[in-house]
Structure formats: C-alpha cells, structure tokens
Specification:
This protein has helices at 2-8, 14-21, 40-48, 61-70, 105-115, 142-154, 157-160, 172-179, 203-227, 234-256, and strands at residues 30-34, 53-58, 75-78, 91-97, 116-133, 183-194, 264-275. It is an alpha/beta fold. It has one domain (2-275): 3-Layer(aba) Sandwich (Rossmann fold), CATH 3.40.50.150. Strands 3-2-1-4-5-7-6 form a 7-stranded mixed beta sheet. α4 links the parallel β2 (53-58) and β3. α9 (203-227) packs antiparallel against α10. The longest helix has 25 residues, at 203-227. It binds S-adenosylmethionine. S-adenosylmethionine (SAM) binds next to α3 and β2. S-adenosylmethionine binds next to α3 and β2.
Length: 276
C-alpha cells in the first residue's frame, strides 16, 4: 500500500494538493492526520509544509510500526479516530485520506470538530473512480485467474472487518460535512496521472510506477495467504509471486527497449474542505 500511496502523494502533484488544501503557510500549523495507514500522506505533508507540526493516528498497530520506521521524525500514534486522545481545540488542521468511509460519520466529524481550533480546517480526501488500463503483458494467465476466482469466493473479510460501511458519493460527502457543523465547505479533485510510457516521466519515475503495481500485486497475494491460510499451499503462493515478478520484469524490459503499451492509472482524489 505504501508504494502506491507514495506515488499518489508524489511532488509531481503537490501544486494541485496545496492549492486545494488552501492552508495558511505563514504560521506554524498543527496538523492531525486521521487513519494515516503506512504514512505516505503524513510524509508528503511534512515535505509540503516544512514548518508544520504533524501528528497522526491510526488504530492499526502494524501500520504505525511501519510508518515509524519509514519516517521516525513524525509522531505516529496508535489510537481511535472516534475517541481522539487530544484536548479540545488543539489543531489547526485535520486531514484524512480514504478513511471517512470506514467510520460512522457522526463520530468521524464530531471528533474533528472538537479537536480543531475555531477557524480550523477539516480536509477529507477520498478516492474516486479513475482510469486503470493495464498493459497486455500483465494479463493474468489461466492459473492466476483460477487463483483469484477461488480467493474471491472464499474471502468475506470485507464484511467481517466491516470495511467501507459508510461510503458516500461526491454530493453526499460535502453535504455530510455541512450537516455536522462545518462552514464554507468546498470541493475539488486532484488527478494523479501515472503513465510510465509518457515521456514527461523520467526513467526513474516510470520504473517506480511499474514497480508500485508489482508491489501491489505481490501484496494482494500475501494478503490472500494471510487471510485464507488453508486455501492455498505455500507452493501455490510462491508460484503466484514468481509469475508476478516475471511479468513485471518483462514489462520493465519492454519499457527499457521503448516498446510502449500506454498502460495508465489516472487516480482521482476528491478533497472536501470545511472550516470550523
Ligand atoms: C484505506 S486505509 C487508508 C490509510 C491511509 N490514509 C492511506 O491513504 O494510505 C484506512 C485507514 O483508516 C484506519 N482506520 C479505520 N477506522 C479507524 C478508526 N476508528 N480509528 C483510527 N484509524 C482507523 C485503518 O486502520 C486504515 O489504516
């Protein structure tokens, strides 16, 4: 998750984010990130607002441990967004990315309203339907198709962990922010264009894009092995990973010899901004 999130918050797109965040940069902002996951947004915020004091919170101890290793200079804390361990009116800004859909809206917004100073800014980021076109060289073969088919039939983790129980569309999100007491609500969209064959990307960035997809695919296999420990043998898991690595090695080879696929990810992040 970290590699793909790191690209989503790459400095290539910083101007779009900074313009929509519309934060006062001449004072030392106290920013709280809620549901920070592996920490990619917090790390980007530190680059974009070097004078800010950034605190983050997530209930997942594995994410917190990972994030602390990647960015020891940031304060990553384990905790619950519905009972924030901070006094009233502590922060200038609260921010979250793809978290609102997991938390009961009353609790999500009320807690942020409580910890924000008067005039503080609440920024809610969420992923929207973008464009995903995969190069044909990465198509699944029959074995991979069978693996994913079996995994999806057996995997009920979304219901089990109550993930994404409160999804909202592009109109419902700002409506909710207004309903829970924020003023001057505004919306905007950042488009992160990740097209490795586009010459506007350096070779280094193009390979980072391709490899972020490789890591995503490998993590998806690991996640299946973790969530469904009895469904697949260790040999089946190993074969899947080997096949993924071979495909991505071939994709990189083709990139290097300038064989183009124009595969692309155009990731759209909606930003809803409200004032306390
Ligand atoms: C889809 S992930 C997004 C992670 C991160 N914001 C990112 O963009 O990479 C949702 C995150 O919200 C966290 N989360 C969900 N409910 C939470 C709660 N009640 N308190 C704290 N964190 C929560 C999860 O642990 C997870 O890290």
């Amino acid at each position: 998750m970290y590699s793909s999130r790191k690209l989503r918050f790459d400095d290539l797109f910083s101007t779009q984010y900074i313009s929509l965040f519309n934060l006062e940069t001449d004072k030392k902002l106290k920013i709280l990130e809620i549901g920070c996951g592996p920490g990619a947004l917090a790390i980007a915020l530190q680059r974009w607002y070097p004078n800010a004091e950034i605190t983050t919170i997530d209930r997942d101890s594995d994410f917190i441990r990972f994030a602390k290793q990647v960015a020891p200079q940031i304060s990553f804390m384990e905790g619950d967004a519905t009972h924030l361990p901070f006094p009233n009116e502590e922060f200038d800004v609260t921010i979250s990315n793809t978290v609102s859909e997991h938390i009961k809206p009353e609790l999500f917004y009320q807690e942020q309203l409580r910890v924000l100073k008067p005039g503080g800014i609440c920024l809610v980021l969420s992923s929207r339907k973008g464009i995903h076109i995969q190069s044909t060289i990465l198509d699944d073969n029959a074995c991979e198709q069978a693996f994913w088919q079996k995994a999806s039939e057996l995997d009920h983790s979304l219901e089990q962990f109550q993930i994404c129980r409160y999804p909202m569309n592009e109109a419902e999100l700002p409506t909710a922010m207004e309903r829970f007491g924020f003023k001057d609500v505004s919306t905007g969209y950042v488009i992160a264009d990740l097209t490795p064959d586009n010459p506007k990307f350096s070779q280094e960035k193009a390979l980072e894009i391709i490899n972020a997809n490789r890591i995503n695919d490998l993590e998806a296999v690991e996640s299946v092995a973790y969530k469904l420990p009895d469904a697949f043998s260790s040999e089946e898991i190993m074969n899947m990973k080997q096949r993924i690595n071979e495909k991505y090695d071939a994709r990189i080879n083709d990139y290097l010899v300038k064989k183009k696929y124009w595969d692309t990810d155009a990731i759209i992040t909606m930003i809803v901004r409200g004032v306390k």
